[in-house]
């Protein structure tokens, strides 16, 4: 037994129990409530010093199901329609079985609950779990079995493979097994740790430095079912505006109005589609949040209006740090109204971010969030289309670090921060935090200052982004925004897209985005992407091409790069590169109806667009190994090139027929194939039986009425649910959308394509379907007539 456990207390013998809203077990040392949320979702909530005080930041009040029974035999047994839970009366050991009587999860010895000082632990036996996935934003491999992970939002601009904490914390994982996957969400915002069999092959465990042991168990048995249940609990993303799925251009910084106008003009002149331009910190006056630098942007509002006529949306960056400056209204007002975080001695906490010395809004307080919402309103009035929330871990430097950063980037023109080696994790020491610190631990939050920073730290970003989203809805009640964030916690998907922070223009980082985005998606976040082309360092032509090819298939497709690095616009690497890259951006615009339909599935069921192979092929263990490929939706398998000079690669194709997206060549899985990948080709395969809806080309979403919907059909049997609405308003919530089922079935020598309306609530501009078969045959059918179409061989 681990040494620390010898000193800890367990639940102890179960002395009695009662069935109320939950099953309450009274132990010798502590008590436990087991709630049945739904038939396959259980909540285990342990008392601490016999008290239950936990108020969740993520899970809203849910009235639990009363549909369960309890009986006492040698063990105490709780039964739902789908699960049986046994509790050993002597040790308190809990085991969970499915309907067939298979053991899914059980505590390790009597260590299902341990408490030592303030820390709470739970140990579980490792049984047939082949992989542990999820855990939010992680570097390293897809499978976290044998790894130890910390949840502590950390601005680590120098992350690389095998770094521990990053910007987001998601104490959720999916335990994958071909037949019976399950998930666990530890609802605790303090610093938490997950040791997934690193210490011992016999058990895994998770613990929190403080707070209660309050966790949820989700039984699949498939990964998709686990995700569906997890997101039912923690929330799902709304439908992004359609233009937010288009191509987006960013840089630190397009720093003057002229530069932004030229950028936009160049996109249109070169007919390279683009929908969004980002404004990084230099649009502000002295980096003061909610200000505009009038020298650099003399006609800010006018610029936005003009660009909007050309189909561009503008998204500015917002940081939480408010500059300490007596001539700055936001600061003065916040001080007068007492809205900033304070230390335990009652003094306002200050730290350093881009503007210099800063104070930080205490977002846990409602009035602070409402104040922030009001401030946003002024910016929204200028015509922007969303917000880019950054530095919200929250990141806060010491004075020296700040001076150094300013000097390096703004005067010495560094291309990346200096390297500071990390101290590897060691049992007793905490991982060394990067040189950028966060708010000190003696900061207190809340009206009555009842929360330590330790408890709030991981949800600071979540609360800021909640304010951002709620504020937007108040200001523009019928226009969907694009909100992105760097920091977050479980549940962030309700409000925002997530980009993975400061990566580098290196092959290692391109690769890293593959398992990282898969795990983020497996944590319930559908709208994810990495800075395409890489943020720090200079990109080069080959890397740029390969990354743009890959980015075409990220759910969130934004190119962003740091100051002083080589420019990364699609035309920055010469004409040949521009040509290839334009083709990929074009492809992205064609694929928009397919991708948008995937977002509908994410909204409805929490299934993310970017999928690990095990999502679609849950019984195939190869899916875990081949983390260097992924699926975009159920139909497209993407196998990017991630090494310099490589012109071919091995691709694993799971069971079934697959068609090369480019040549139509048929390959049958399960098998590994060596496929060629000249510089202008990213290997992509389409599952047999797919019906891929494609749009006609346009320079931005909404430029053209899409009168023709191409349906590219691939031999085999299958179906696809196609979703459409106006793409920008919330009217879909009132039923103004269409849902069509396309299905393909074998008929004599050929196939029948059926088109069926499942919901008809939106007047689509579509006039006809243009069906394109594998052999290149084109059949046009008028919208009204399209029901069953015979596709002869
Ligand atoms: C942070 C962000 C990066 C941004 C920079 C300047 O490093 O992660 O995307 O460009 O700050 O605002």
What structural class results from the helix and strand content? alpha+beta
Sequence stretches where pLDDT stays below 50 over 5 or more residues: 421-436
Instruction: Find the count of extended strands (DSSP E, 2+ residues).
Output: 48
Global Rg: 26 Å
Small-molecule components bound:
alpha-D-glucopyranose
Major sheet: 8 strands, antiparallel
Number of helices: 13
Overall average pLDDT? 95
Beta-strand fraction estimate: 25-35%
* Apparent shape: globular
Helix content: 10-25%
N-to-C CA distance: 66 Å
Report on the structure:
Helix 6 (366-381) packs across helix 8. The model is unreliable at 421-436 (pLDDT under 50). It contains 13 helices and 48 strands. It has an 8-stranded antiparallel β-sheet with strand order 1-2-3-4-19-16-15-12. It has an 8-stranded parallel β-sheet with strand order 33-32-30-27-22-21-20-34, covered by helices on one side. A 6-stranded antiparallel β-sheet has the order 35-36-37-40-38-39. It is of the alpha+beta class. Strand 21 (276-279), helix 4 (300-309) and strand 22 form a beta-alpha-beta unit. Helix content is 21%, strand content 29%. It binds alpha-D-glucopyranose (GLC). Residues 157, 252, 280-281, 317, 390, 486, 501-502, 560 line the site of alpha-D-glucopyranose.
